[in-house]
What does this fold into?
Amino acid sequence: MSYRQRMTIAFTAAFTILLLAGGVLGYHMLDEAPGPGSDAAENDHLAAESWTSSLSDGDWQVSLSPEIRSLLTLTGAGTTRRADQLGNNPAAGLAAAGSTPVIHSEFGAALWSNCTEIRIIQLIDDAIVDPTRALGAIDEAITRLGELTGLTFVTGADSRGDTTHLGAPERDTIQIAWVPEDSVHLDGDELGAAEVWHVADTRGIPTIIRVRVFLSAQILTDYSSGSAGGGVNVETAVLHELGHAVGVGHSADGDSFMHTELGSQAGTTIADLAALAFAGSRSC
Ligand SMILES: [Zn+2]
It folds into this structure.
């Protein structure tokens, strides 16, 4: 699979209404196969995205190996920090490792609060020929995402139908829709997209409050099944989009499953593990 990030901020009509009502911003991150001649500009924009920390971060929900602690510039047994590294600055460590957030401000990256029970709603378009496999891939990816972030996901209802017209996901919900290759929700050759809504709290810290993920049926036809984050397969492609759903953007590392292009060695790197642990560390 090949991914290219199109950093489009899509303030659609629905987002605008939410913005006026409650200070909610919409953010749109889309993946698609690479187009000719546009990668340099995309990468320039990607480099401008950088992790920032808030005072609420660092409430770790998963155990951190010495390698991960080192990358996050945390002290502790077995860690090896460079002398020139700033201590206890995970955002700087993640940025140095080539990881990026979906969105950030000076007050921190947009992340879920880790006391939030995040509801998973699954929609399978009638055009999906093997709904069992489609749902199984989401289950596998959600389980892995829970292990790597420590966030709490509660899988709710799944339903089949026409996915052309979808309402905005409810609060504290990640809505995941398997859609036809030619879905109105995906442009051209996009294989997936993640829309992330966030709101700033009184201190200005951005918090993710709802997400919608679109997955193209093409993923199911192009890739075989496997383990999420362990090679090029359907589950890894789903985990890539779900990584965006918890606030993690693209990685500059070609071996990362969060790279813009899912390379043959695509897996979970130390930086990916660190970024996902960080994504689950935002206290309420
Ligand atoms: Zn992506």
About this structure: The first helix runs from residue 13 to 22.
